[in-house]
């Protein structure tokens, strides 16, 4: 048995509820709200093989808080599983515009607590890179708003070589890029764009797979930017 | 059979998780009330910074919940319903609590109740003083709210009689504290300084008390400006600022207007009970003056202990318990956080 299986107590549970799924398979719930896509889905992981059972995606940058939990439940229903059967949760931790990102992360953290399973953080750009088929070194780029992009660079095998960073779009030394930020700023980045546009369930689980070999890292957002807040200067006078 | 209600609060700078037991007779018992505050992180900005608060909520949510279950010696699986602040409050802050609450509801397979933060401030009093008489009046005073409410049923029927037209009372405290060189948040240091000062030293204005002003509305912006003007005048004349007298006189003006309007509302509507809650309810002069005036008018005054008055999860759990007991329908899992949720909507 692979070493990482030891981290899932639930992997030893009886077969009854997972008929047709090999016994050494773990059931993973994946969540990402780092981009305008509200994404949740279920996948099984057997060794390095990821197979997606169900995936729910809505593109709406203002509906992360409303839709993420309903998406989780809809995906479970379609996959024919209950949340109690989930062995682990994978959550995209950005980078991403703050508010929506936190909706997914608070959801993942509370689900993990409520279900008594681990939640594994994964860089959302890595999740994009995990399913990109570039065949050469490439970028994963998402929209950071305020005319900036979040980006990271990967080698031809999809290993991250630089980033994540946040900055104004400009040529970054590579000519192929995945992610919605690449589509939005293809010209400024001087790139040819490839799929996927947003993190997918398959990409999230594949990118998190190496993390399953250890205790999960804390579920901390990759904010990259500091909060907008200024300390007050000298007290303003009411009389001129 | 009694039921366990978990309450989650994240509308401003306190991450709160409370656990209560709803007994069959409708009484509500406090089991745990854990709060993680980000107030220290806001101090240098002189006010709550929404993004800083939201970040802190996400970090604190699960650890705070864990502490509440440990304190109550309960398991997550003991929970029968989840209540969460759906509004009003800071959008990004509310979103963290609402998202977590939905996830707990889904994970545990129990109903969700999105409830009103303001109603929670009133409901919390039942944890200390038992069921609320129907009707009663409630005066909510904190850094974020100043409202006079008629409560016919805490679970279903709350009407606003008046509210502040500009600053919340607590906001005025913060601003005056800054003018006097006292730390943030301003409530406790001003209260402390005021105890050493003369409340009649300076006649600061009583806002919204003219004959043509709305009877039950409040205004604290003019008072705040008057204090700043007075202090600047004294500075210009090279006088030393009598901080204690200014604090006492300012605090007297706030307490005078709040209690006068609340007692007048009680008398006019023939209501015999006044509940004062919210962070500023802990202020010694406000509760002292309210006690005097309520006694004189034959009105029962209820003020929850300070720990219950400030934002916490227990108040949301308590309100959730009353909503459950009233048989109100559960919330859908696609509810939104509503930063401007009106007080007459007790649950969404
Ligand atoms: Zn409050």
Automatic annotation (TrEMBL), chain A:
It comes from Amycolatopsis sacchari. NCBIfam families: T6A_YeaZ (TIGR03725). GO terms for biological process: tRNA threonylcarbamoyladenosine modification. Pfam families: TsaD. InterPro entries: ATPase_NBD (IPR043129), Gcp-like_dom (IPR000905), T6A_TsaB (IPR022496). Residues 61-162 form the Gcp-like domain. Gene3D superfamilies: 3.30.420.40. This is tRNA threonylcarbamoyl adenosine modification protein YeaZ. One of its GO terms (cellular component) is cytosol.
UniProtKB/TrEMBL annotation, chain B:
It catalyses: L-threonylcarbamoyladenylate + adenosine(37) in tRNA = N(6)-L-threonylcarbamoyladenosine(37) in tRNA + AMP + H(+). SUPFAM superfamilies: Actin-like ATPase domain. Its EC number is 2.3.1.234. Gene3D superfamilies: 3.30.420.40. Keywords: Acyltransferase, Cytoplasm, Iron, Metal-binding, Transferase, tRNA processing. GO terms for cellular component: cytoplasm. Binds 1 Fe(2+) ion per subunit. Its cofactor is Fe(2+). GO terms for biological process: tRNA threonylcarbamoyladenosine modification. PANTHER family: TRNA N6-ADENOSINE THREONYLCARBAMOYLTRANSFERASE, TRNA N6-ADENOSINE THREONYLCARBAMOYLTRANSFERASE, MITOCHONDRIAL. Belongs to the KAE1 / TsaD family. Required for the formation of a threonylcarbamoyl group on adenosine at position 37 (t(6)A37) in tRNAs that read codons beginning with adenine. Is involved in the transfer of the threonylcarbamoyl moiety of threonylcarbamoyl-AMP (TC-AMP) to the N6 group of A37, together with TsaE and TsaB. TsaD likely plays a direct catalytic role in this reaction. This is tRNA N6-adenosine threonylcarbamoyltransferase. The gene is tsaD.
């Amino acid at each position: 048995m692979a070493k990482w299986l030891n981290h899932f107590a639930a992997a030893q549970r009886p077969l009854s509820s997972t008929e047709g799924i090999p016994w050494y398979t773990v059931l993973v719930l994946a969540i990402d709200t780092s981009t305008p896509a509200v994404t949740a889905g279920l996948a099984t992981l057997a060794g390095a093989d990821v197979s997606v059972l169900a995936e729910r995606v809505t593109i709406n940058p203002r509906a992360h808080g409303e839709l993420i939990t309903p998406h989780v439940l809809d995906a479970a229903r379609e996959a024919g599983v209950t949340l109690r059967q989930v062995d682990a949760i994978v959550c995209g931790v950005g980078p991403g515009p703050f508010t929506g990102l936190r909706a997914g992360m608070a959801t993942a953290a509370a689900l993990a607590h409520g279900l008594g399973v681990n939640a594994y953080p994964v860089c959302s750009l890595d999740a994009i890179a995990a399913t990109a088929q570039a065949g050469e070194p490439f970028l994963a780029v998402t929209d950071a708003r305020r005319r900036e992009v979040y980006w990271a660079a990967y080698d031809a095998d999809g290993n991250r070589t630089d980033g994540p960073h946040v900055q104004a779009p400009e040529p970054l030394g590579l000519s192929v890029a995945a992610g919605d930020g690449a589509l939005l700023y293809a010209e400024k980045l001087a790139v040819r764009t490839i799929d996927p546009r947003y993190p997918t369930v398959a990409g999230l689980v594949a990118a998190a797979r190496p993390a399953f070999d250890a205790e999960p890292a804390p579920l901390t957002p990759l904010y990259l930017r500091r909060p907008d807040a200024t300390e007050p200067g000298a007290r303003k006078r009411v009389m001129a | 059979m009694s039921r366990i209600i978990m309450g989650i609060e994240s509308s401003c700078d306190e991450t709160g998780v409370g656990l209560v037991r709803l007994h069959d007779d409708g009484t509500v018992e406090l089991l745990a009330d854990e709060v993680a505050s980000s107030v220290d992180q806001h101090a240098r900005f002189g006010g709550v910074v929404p993004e800083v608060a939201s970040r802190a909520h996400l970090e604190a949510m699960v650890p705070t919940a864990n502490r509440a279950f440990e304190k109550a010696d309960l398991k997550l699986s003991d929970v029968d319903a989840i209540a969460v602040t759906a509004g009003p409050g800071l959008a990004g802050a509310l979103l963290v609590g609402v998202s977590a609450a939905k996830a707990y509801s889904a994970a545990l397979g129990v109903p969700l109740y999105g409830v009103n933060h303001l109603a929670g401030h009133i409901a919390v009093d039942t944890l200390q003083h038992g069921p609320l008489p129907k009707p009663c009046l409630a005066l909510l005073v904190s850094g974020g709210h100043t409202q006079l409410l008629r409560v016919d049923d805490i679970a279903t029927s709350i009407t606003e009689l008046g509210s502040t037209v500009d600053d919340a009372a607590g906001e005025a405290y913060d601003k005056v504290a800054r003018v006097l060189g006292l730390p943030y948040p301003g409530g406790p240091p001003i209260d402390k300084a005021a105890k050493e000062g003369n409340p009649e030293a300076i006649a600061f204005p009583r806002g919204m008390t003219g004959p043509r002003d709305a009877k039950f509305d409040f205004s604290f912006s003019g008072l705040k400006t008057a204090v700043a003007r007075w202090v600047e005048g004294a500075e210009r004349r090279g006088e030393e600022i009598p901080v204690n007298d200014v604090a006492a006189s300012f605090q007297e003006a706030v307490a005078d207007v709040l209690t006068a309007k609340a007692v007048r509302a009680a008398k006019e509507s023939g209501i015999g009970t006044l509940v004062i809650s919210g962070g500023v309810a802990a202020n010694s002069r406000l509760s002292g003056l309210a006690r005097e005036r309520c006694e004189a008018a034959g009105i029962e005054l209820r003020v929850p202990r300070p720990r219950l008055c400030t934002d916490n999860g227990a108040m949301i759990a308590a309100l959730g318990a009353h909503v459950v007991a009233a048989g109100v329908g559960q919330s859908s899992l696609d509810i939104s956080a509503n930063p401007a949720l009106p007080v007459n909507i007790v649950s969404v």
